[in-house]
Amino acid sequence: MPSARRVQSAGAYREWRRSSVTIAGTRYALESKPGVFADGAIDPAALLLAERVTIAPGNVVVHLNCGNGLFGSVAARVADRVLLTDRNILAVQATRRTLDANSVTNVDVLLGHGATALPADVRADVVAIRIPQEKIALLQLVSDAFRILRIGGHCYLAGATNEGAKTATSTLVAVFGNGGVLAVDSGHRIAMATKRGETPASPQVLASPYLQSDAFNEIEAVIRGSARTLFTRPGVFSWDHLDEATSMLADAMEINLGESVLDLGCGCGVLGTVAATLSAERVCMVDADVEAVRSAARTAKAAGTDHCSVLTSDVAGEVLDQRFDVVVTNPPFHIGKTTDLDVPAQFIRDAHHVLSANGRLYLVANRTLPYERIIVQLFGNIRTLHDGRRFKVLSATKQQSD
Length: 402
Fold this sequence. Notes:
Layout: E1 4-5, E2 17-23, E3 26-32, H1 44-52, E4 60-64, H2 70-75, E5 81-86, H3 89-101, E6 107-111, E7 124-130, H4 135-148, E8 149-160, H5 165-176, E9 180-185, E10 188-194, E11 217-223, E12 226-232, H6 244-252, E13 260-264, H7 270-277, E14 282-287, H8 290-302, E15 308-312, E16 324-329, E17 334-335, E18 338-340, H9 342-354, E19 355-366, H10 372-379, E20 383-387, E21 391-397
Parallel strand pairs: 1-18, 4-5, 4-7, 5-6, 7-8, 13-14, 13-16, 14-15, 16-19
Antiparallel strand pairs: 2-3, 8-10, 9-10, 11-12, 17-18, 19-21, 20-21
Helix pairs in contact: 4-5, 6-7, 9-10
């Protein structure tokens, strides 16, 4: 397992920090915080895009999977119009702050995966892609880039070798019928291809039905003894199967008649939907990934629940003014390839904050993750409901005096 960063102190999670990088003699400010991809460092792939992409005056430039806005800030100095999209609300927030810090005004930042968030009439001269790790999610970005580019337009993509950059480059070349690697640096590479016709060179590469934004993967699963249908999208956690740890938590959590439940980091909505079909009176599901939010809403609708709300949120940021009887969570601990415990620590802090007196936290985690200390610090108690070879299910009750 990659080494984990030390957990930040309470309150530090929501503090934005500014750094800078110099490109072609110009200094650019970057805004970041825990939970943002490559927080505390300059993403080498974003740097390759910022340094190597060729933009002409008057160009329309699109950046898919925009990260913290570095490439957009650089592109805006030359391009006539720049549009940036990202599926993660933290990336969108970071990008907007980075653009403001650089006094950039000719850029639109949109929450959504790929071109789905863009106006339907957008035609680009340049599309840049910071590759995601999930293969089908990457295919959608490459497919979107081919569709929105003008003839003669260029598609660039960049990422780390251990994120699949070599395969991504092969995919780019197969779709466009030309192109290749422009540069390699620090285990990262950038590739470029040119659109020369309206039909992909190898249409079979883009044959997956999930490249359409309205196509959901349907998973048939048995949870707590009942058959359920889950709806997911590529890139959502455990998008092609029911996660074992989540299933364990669904079995272990106790929901009493009339209780309110928060599913924190809901993914495709397994836990929240199960809670809604048990005894919960009110269920709220939140996730930072807009594709997870779309999936959870679809899963809840398929289950026939009418008392679920689903929100895009940085941890529990959008519901900190609400109170719940139960919080259920399978918190993420990876940001890209890096293990970062700041995010799950904030999940636990936010859970404690939004719980009513005597409210209960139910959390599942990899057995080796050290969550017990922060849970005991905040709640003053802890129970182990399941201690298996790979996963553990923990519970704690908020004291009346907290």
